[in-house]
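Table 4 source record.
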Amino acid sequence: MNVVIRHVRAGLTNADQRITEDVEKFCFAVADLYSYTFKPLLDVLLFTRSLAKSMGYRTQLALYAYYLLSATVLRSISPPLALMTAQETGLAGAFRSAHQVQQICAGHVTGEKRHSQFRFKRTGGSAFLPARHYI
């Protein structure tokens, strides 16, 4: 807990919003763990076994080498999606924070207008009472 407090004091902005989004993303990642990790791994193992029986290991090795080469090329030319996602999360947090500040300021503005509808006069003590109410 002290680590979190130190990071917040050191300049981590919108900590509550970032934690909320991180928990949501973690829950989705855990829920999709089977369908995106374990099932494809099982499919690859079964596919490898059936390919080895029908075509032999040399052809299978050539197919996997082609796959690794194409994956490397695609990874080198694709944009940095993790960085873009981090920037999007930061911008969303800044937007929510600015909107919250704007709501607070709007409340102060309406509060000032409400109080400016009264004209106050000083009574004998230090209290002020409304002299006339303007609608």
